[in-house]
Amino acid sequence: MSTMNPEFRRNLWLELTPTRLVIMPLVVGLLLALGWMWGEAEGLSAVGTTAGWVILVLWGTRLAADGVAAEVQGKTWDSQRLSGIGPVAMTVGKLFGATAYAWFGGLMCIVAIFAVGGMASDPLGPLRLLVTALFAQAVALWFTLVQVRLGTGLRRFQVLLAQVVGIIASVQLTPLFEYAKLDIGWYGVDFPGDGFALFFTAVMTFWAWIACWRLLRADFLYRNWPLAFVAFLIFIAVYTEGLAPGTFPRLEWLISGAISYHLMVAAVWIAALIEPKSVVQLRRLLERLRRRDLSGFLSDLPCAVAGLPVVVLAGLFTLSQQPSVVNLGPQLLAVFLFLIRDMLLVQYVVLGPRARRGHTAAVIYLLVLYGLVPALLQAGGAVQLIPAFLPATVINATIGVIGPLIQVGIFAFLLSTRLVALRARA
Amino acid sequence: MIDVQGLCFEYPAKRALDEVSFRIEPGTVTALVGPNGAGKTTLLRCLSTLEPPYAGRIRLDGIDVAEEPRRARRLLGFLDEFFGLYDDLSVLQSLRYWAAAHGIDDPGDAAARDVAARLGIEDRLSERAGSLSRGLRQRLAIAQVIIHRPRILLMDEPASGLDPEARAGLAELILGLQAEGMTIVVSSHILSELEDYSSHMLIVDRGRIVDHAATGARAVPAVAGRQVRLRVVLAEPVAGLEDALSPPPLGFEIGDVVADGEGRMARFEFAGTPRDQARLLEHQIAQGLPVASFAEDHSSLQDRYIETLRKGRS
Questions:
Q1: Strand B265-270 and strand B258-259: pairing?
Q2: Shortest Cα–Cα distance, B290 to chain A (Å)
Q3: CA–centroid distance for B43 within its chain
Q4: Is the CB of residue B8 less than 8 Å away from at least one CB of chain A?
Q5: Which of A189, A236, A340, B114 is at a distance of 20 to 30 A from B48, taking alpha carbons?
Q6: Given this model, what pLDDT does residue A244 score?
Q7: d(CA A226, CA A237)
Q8: Are B201 and B255 in contact (CB under 8 A)?
């Protein structure tokens, strides 16, 4: 029996056909030769880096996203879900199988850059290309799975969006590489700035793989407790805690507490937005609670809800550690209230009559609340009211807490009426 | 083999399956029938572990599918009405892939070639799946879902889009798989075809099981305890025929008696021995019923289906 991952092998059959195996070296070889003629080793490295990025990141994200989107459109996804291929093997098979042809071309570029000694100005370039590609592709696959589970959009649109998200996630780190000329201390280890950014991307790649694996587990209907997400939140705390000593001494209190708190809130917020929602899921969750089916309850519990206690604990810990010269309480509370408001708002909109477009509508409402309303208040001279719509208690702490609290009440009321109406319809 | 208890499935504004309970015995072929929107496909998708039920329990050969979906899936083959194939792979590559995906150790592609031969596509192994005709695609799809020799096969509208010859071939295949011991559930609207191979009929209407009984349509060897449907026709109408027929004080039960409006004909389920059947006839004659005919009911599935639905709705 072949011990090769079946999904990986199937992708190799499709991707690495004899014709394609000839075409890729031909094209990449010509490009690298052109680079060499322009500027020998430096020229080849520059062209190789650009070509590698185009092949591995620009195109690789598309292939990674299409690895699942094509299965759904081709109606083979359910068969794959029922097969004996587990979530780990499926993650590996999709990530490295669907992108095999891109890796075939991209690795040629990377090897060529290494072979000529790389660029003197950027010795980490080839390694960064490798890690960035892995990260971008994993994010693209993850975001496709998110969309598949939400049941939104057409294949072409899903793939394009996942590709954009994957590329943006990898590009976002680039300014760090440029900016971070300083050494960064992390748990007593000094990293050069770009080396640390590379390390961080590699760690985030691992988390992106975990996220893909977890979504596949959920889609395969395995019991799926939100442990991975809680672990990710704890990782955020551990990661930011490690940054504190030495790197930003004056802001040590901020790094160790408030930053990790805000990052956790952001992670929970994103989870609340992208997780599938339905009234049936809510009813089933409550039913499992009523029957004291703890395993089933935890399996159905949305990650965002599971993350709330961790956020609360992080907030309390931050408050206990804050220096006497500042009072972070109102800001942390306001951020938490905005998170709850947004979770309620998204649920309310998604459980509405046009559920398929609910998430898009929710994003638009949030953009209005976070962007348009504060801009109008600013233009109208009512700056003091802005904290009611943005977590900025530094402007006015009272409005910054009462504003979101009232909105939490409004959306809780709206959601409860919608749930009652849905129950009556059922 | 399939044990369903209190199964509920909900869509946001509709309960698609409501407290569904039934049991399917090993080695049977069950026709899953019902009107459009009755919940057949939802039921099949729950049975196949593709959809999580809102409440209730499904056990496949004793395995709880919610607790151990991966173990349960090893027992299962599921053919969706709108199945997909890997059009760019050859037939052999497709079969090799699914063999490996189900964890089959297949040196020399023995399993792939064997299932291809059973489905009559052994001469198409090198052809691209995308180049096959509708009937051959159907055969390849079935080959893919049975390559791991599942003990339970679920099929949703498998005859859809097939020509008459291919449909006849499908019926033969289903009977062949049943003979190998497979438990099969087939959802279809084409009742005349289900009649060719179904041993039982499960009628779903508005998310509930309306009827689940042996079809009696197939020539089953007479064995003690088998379940058949009997039909009594009288020479002249008898008022209150249902009451006159049941229950017989003979030490065995019969199913609910369904009589026509005139009191001239009635049907009921019967699970006794041939000797019990003879005693039942003697009893009815002794009761003074003018029995003109007493035999297994070979009325078409369609008649029974419509009759049961009407009864259920009234």
A1: antiparallel
A2: 50
A3: 12
A4: no
A5: B114
A6: 57
A7: 17
A8: no
d(CA A264, CA A124): 30
| Cβ distance of B12 and A351 shorter than 8 Å | yes
Instruction: With beta carbons under 8 A apart, name residues in chain A contacting B15.
Output: 426
Here the contacts of A108-111 (C-beta below 8 Å, separation 24 or greater) are: A108/A24, A108/A25, A108/A28, A108/A29, A108/A32, A109/A28, A109/A32, A109/A48, A109/A49, A109/A51, A109/A52, A109/A55, A109/A56, A110/A48, A110/A52
| Pairing of β B228-234 and β B76-79 | unpaired
Query: Do the chains contact at A14 and B84, CB–CB below 8 Å?
Result: no
pLDDT tens-digit profile of B138-193? 999 999 999 999 999 999 988 877 778 878 888 888 888 888 889 999 998 878 77
Residue in the structure block whose two tokens are 């609290």: A405
What is the separation of C-alpha A332 from the centre of its chain, rounded to a whole number of angstroms?
23
Give yes or no for B74 touching A (CB within 8 A).
Answer: yes
Cα separation, A92 vs A97, in Å, equals 7
Residues in chain B with CB shorter than 8 Å from the CB of A284 are: 52, 54-55
Report the alpha-carbon distance of residue B1 to residue B178 in Å, rounded.
Answer: 13
Q: How far is B3 from chain A (nearest CA, A)?
A: 19
d(CA B229, CA B297): 5
Record the tokens describing residue A354, joined without a space: 């046009």
C-alpha A309/C-alpha A301 separation (Å) is 13
Across the interface, whether the CB atoms of A83 and B13 are under 8 A apart is answered: no
Q: In this complex, do A2 and B80 lie within 8 Å of one another by their Cβ atoms?
A: no
In angstroms, the first-to-last Cα distance of chain A is 51
**At how many degrees (to 10) do helices B110-118 and B91-101 cross?**
120
Helix (H) / strand (E) element for A203: namely: helix A193-219
> For residue B107, what are its two tokens?
């040196």
Q: How far apart are CA B265 and CA B56, in angstroms?
A: 39
The residue type of A236 is: I
B73 closest CB neighbour out of A13, A82, A422: A82
A304 touches A275 (CB < 8 A) = yes
Q: Which domains does chain B have, with CATH numbers?
A: 2-214 (3.40.50.300), 228-297 (3.30.70)
Tell me the β-bridge partners of B230: B268, B296
In the structure encoding, which two tokens stand for residue A258, read together? Answer: 């408030």
Q: pLDDT tens string for chain A (426 positions)? A: 457 899 999 999 999 999 999 999 999 999 999 999 988 888 999 999 999 999 999 999 999 999 999 999 999 999 999 998 999 999 999 999 999 999 999 999 999 999 988 777 778 888 989 999 999 999 999 999 999 998 877 778 889 999 999 999 887 555 555 665 667 778 878 877 778 888 889 999 999 999 999 999 999 999 889 999 999 999 999 888 887 555 665 565 565 678 889 999 999 999 999 999 888 888 888 888 888 888 889 999 999 999 999 999 999 988 887 776 778 889 999 999 999 999 999 999 998 876 667 888 999 999 999 999 999 999 999 999 999 999 988 888 999 999 999 999 999 999 999 888 887 766
